[in-house]
Specification:
Helix content: 10-25%
Distance between the termini: 19 Å
Structural class: alpha+beta
Radius of gyration: 15 Å
Shape: elongated
CATH class: Alpha Beta
CATH architecture: 2-Layer Sandwich
Number of domains: 1
Number of strands: 6
Largest sheet: 4 strands, antiparallel
């Protein structure tokens, strides 16, 4: 009996890239996922607009569970779909399930 181990891939992305990420994952055969609206900040620790500091920014978290041999495919798909070349493109975390 073959043991199949899985990983959870969590991606924190810009809200405007959430649907691009979900569509791209579906196209490469990862149709099942969970999405959450979250708040957070990265290296830049928020943004300053005029005199107002916004230290928590709206982001989306996309979670997908994949088999171990599919992790790299899921990560590269997310990276390609979420990329804007600007600070705040997000982070990807991989954990065992």
């Amino acid at each position: 009996m073959k043991v199949i181990t899985k990983k959870m891939v969590r991606a924190i992305v810009r809200p405007d890239k959430e649907s691009d990420v979900a569509s791209a994952l579906a196209k490469v055969n990862f149709p099942g996922l969970t999405k959450w609206d979250v708040l957070g900040r990265g290296k830049q620790q928020g943004i300053q607009v005029g005199g107002q500091l916004y230290d928590e920014l709206a982001k989306s978290m996309v979670l997908v569970v994949v088999e171990d041999d599919q992790v790299e495919s899921a990560i590269s798909t997310i990276q390609d779909a979420a990329f804007t070349s600007l600070p705040g493109d997000g982070r990807i975390f991989v954990t065992p399930v």
